[in-house]
Amino acid sequence: MMLVGSLLAPTAPGVEEATLLGAHEGATLELGPHHKRLEVVTEWRQADGTTTRQSDALIELATGMHYLADGQWRPTQERIEILPEGAVARHGPHRVIWPLELTPQQEIDLVSADEQRFRSRVLGLSYFDAGSGKSVLFAEVQPAQAELVGPNKLAYRDAFTEVRADLVYEYRRDRFAQDVVIRAPLPGPEQFGLDPGTTRLELVTEFLEAPDPVKEPYVVKGEEDPARRAQMVEPELVDETLVFGSYRMARGRALWLEPGGGPGAEPRDELWVAKRWLLIEGRRVLFEQVPWSAVAPLLDRLPRQAATPQPSQAHRRTASLERVLPHPGGGKHARVDDRPPRDSASPLWTSGAFEADTVASAAVAAVTGPAVVLDYTLLQSQGAYALKSDTTYYVSGPVNLGGSGLKVTFEGGTVVKYSDAGNAAIYILSGTALDWQAGPYRPVILTAKDDNSVGQTLPYSTGQPWNNSNRYAQYALSLNGMNTDGYELRDLRIAYARTGLHAYYHNSGKSHIFRHAQIVNCTAAMTFDYGNFKLLNALVVGAKRVFDHNYAG
What we know:
Elements: E1 19-31, E2 35-45, E3 51-61, E4 66-69, E5 72-75, E6 81-83, E7 86-89, E8 95-98, E9 101-102, E10 108-111, E11 117-129, E12 135-140, E13 144-150, E14 153-156, E15 165-172, E16 175-182, E17 199-209, E18 214-222, H1 226-231, E19 236-244, E20 247-249, E21 252-257, E22 270-280, E23 283-291, H2 292-299, E24 371-380, E25 385-387, E26 392-395, E27 398-401, E28 407-411, E29 415-418, E30 425-428, E31 433-437, E32 444-448, E33 475-480, E34 488-495, E35 499-504, E36 511-520, E37 524-528, E38 532-541, E39 545-548, E40 551-552
Parallel strand pairs: 3-26, 22-40, 25-28, 26-29, 27-30, 28-31, 29-32, 30-33, 32-34, 33-35, 34-36, 35-37, 36-38, 37-39
Antiparallel strand pairs: 1-2, 2-3, 4-5, 6-7, 7-8, 8-10, 9-13, 10-11, 11-12, 11-17, 13-14, 14-15, 15-16, 16-24, 17-23, 18-19, 19-20, 20-24, 21-22, 21-24, 22-23
C-alpha cells in the first residue's frame, strides 16, 4: 500500500483548524537557463480569524526557459521575425536564420546554446532499396518563398520538384524541428525499378557545417528470414540518435495530419522514422528513413486530384548503386559548398526588440489539407539533474533530462506539479542513469498545478484539478530506455495527466519494471512502445484508457 500522508499540504503552523486562503508569488530568488526559483507566500486564516503568512521556495522548470543576453537571463520567446535580410529566431537559447526564398543554394543557419554551428539545406526526397542497395533522388528542392504560419512556424510551400510537398520549420525554446509535409501521393518505388517490399522513403539533408555527432545506434527492425537476410545490402533498419554536446537529434516520426495542425487519425498512424548520418564524398548527409511498406498506406489516403503530373520522359530518373547528391548549381555531382558562412557578428543574430510588423499576428494553418508529415527534431538537454524531496517543482513546458552517462535523481518524497499548457512533460533521454529513490512511505508524486493536497500550493492554483477536462502533463514521465538495461520504478503516484507514464524502446532484452504505482484521473494511464514491460501492483482509477500504444511499423 502506498502512503502519501507525510506529503499532504500542511495546515497553518501550530493550528490544525487553519484554512488555506491562497498563495502568491514573492521575489524571484534565482534564474538559470532552464529554471526559475521563486518565493511563494501562502496565506492562512486561523481559527480566531487572524491571517498568517508562510514563505517557501518553488522551482519552475522548462528546458530553454531563459537565454543569456548582455550578461542577464531573459525569458525565451518562441517567435520568428521576418526582416529584410531573412527570417530569424533570436530571442532564445538557440538562434536560427532562414532565407526569405529557399533555393538549392540557400541554407538554414543555427547556432546552439553551447555555440555549436549547424548550417544545413534539404537536398530532396529519395528511395533506397535495402535489398539491392540501389537509390534514386526523385524530388529536389525548388525555389519557394518563406511564409509565417504561426508565431514560431515558418513554411515554404511547394518546396520540391515532381511532388506536392512543403517544408515547415518550428522554433521552440527546447528544440528546433524540420517537417516535410507531403500533400499528395508519391510516385511509387516500382516506377524506378525498386522493390517496394525492401525500399525506404528518405528525406535527405546536407549539413555544410556541423560538429561530429556521437552516434547511439538502435535496431528498429531487421529481416528475420536467414536466406533473404543474406541477400540484402542492409537487412536492418537502424536508427541513430545523434548527440551533439547538449543537443541531440531524437527519434523522428511520420504521421497523418488534418487541417488545423492536429493529428487527424488514431495514434497508431504514427510511424518510426530512422536516422542515418553518413559522410559521402566529404559531405555530411542526414538520411531520414521510413519503410515504404509502412508509409504507403498513409500516402494512399491523400487526395489524388492534388497529385503532381508524371514527370516527362526527359526528366525521368533511374536508380543507381551509388548515392548521387545534387549540385547546388544544378550539376549531377556536387562538391562541398565553399561559400563563406554568415558572419557570426551579423546584426541578424543580435537580440533586438520585436517590431510590430515582423511577427505573425495570427496563425495561418501550416497544414491546409490532409497530409503525411516526416519530421526531425534537434533537442536540447538540461543534462544531469536531481529532484529533491524538500522542494516542490512546477513544470511549465518540456523538461529534457539526462543523456548517455548522465545521472538523474528522484528523491523519495519529490513532488512535481504540471502546467495545463499542453506540452508540459519530463523526458528522460536515452542512456540516462536513473536513480529512483522512492519507497513505501516516501513516494514520488506527479500531479497538477491546481492540486493543493500535496506539496507547496502554487500561486497559479485553482485548487480544483478535477474541473480541468483538458488535464495537465502531456507526459508526467516519459522514459527512453535505449542503451539501458531498462528502468525500475516503484512507489509512484501520478494524477491528472493526459498520459501518466510513457516508456519506450530499449535494446537490452530486459524489461522496464513498474511496481506499487497509483495512476489517477489521467486520460491515458500508460503508453508502452517497442520493448518489454512489467507492471506489478498498480492501481488505475478514472482513466479513459489504461494502456495505449503510439507507434506502428
